[in-house]
């Protein structure tokens, strides 16, 4: 098993960052504009990226103190069954986001790509909560031929 | 053991990307302006980031066909003994960079941070070879309280 890890810090209240990863309308402002669903444990969120497809996530954990966890229920074969874990912590003026996309079966080239894309989307989340300047799909930062 | 993976694509000749990860003067334009050393197998490169310290890398592999490998000889305890592997491949108009920083003993918070920072430095490398717009330390993109 292999995991994608990231860490960003946002100069913003913890609850602002929490809402940005929990509320479909807010996720749509940093990840993909095509985000729908209901944020409740056992509920599902659907993220779409046009012709490239997308992901359905089951919500496993929702703790406003700073923990969110999704399980990938549908999407590319490499993603199904993996889990995405978000931990938020206050440190001084910062809200620290510890991100993990865990349970990849193999270190395939697509995992390399997703790791870099997650970094750019996490920075999009940071700019959203700090400056109201998120960059969700379809106008997100491109990193390669795989966009 | 745990690894940091990334993938970027550059619209640039493979040799331009190769030179940018092999030549100290070029590395200084996307990673840290304080890069010195000699690029030869068995040689060392020293990367410094002011008061934050830095890394000494021993060069393990240098293949202009598209493979470079460094071993961390000195730096933060978590980095010593880890290896950084670069593979370059041509695909149409693209040079694809498959990056791996491998051999982390534990998934510590610092590993999360380094993964996100590597993504931003790889994008700096991409902008350098495509548009001559690298962003090396000390003016690199900041991602958190750990800069």
TrEMBL record, chains A, B:
Pfam families: AHSA1
Domain Activator of Hsp90 ATPase homologue 1/2-like C-terminal: 12-130
Domain of life of the organism encoding this protein: Bacteria
InterPro entries associated with the record: ASHA1/2-like_C, START-like_dom_sf
Family in the record: Belongs to the AHA1 family.
Name under which the protein is recorded: Activator of HSP90 ATPase
Organism field: Dactylosporangium sucinum
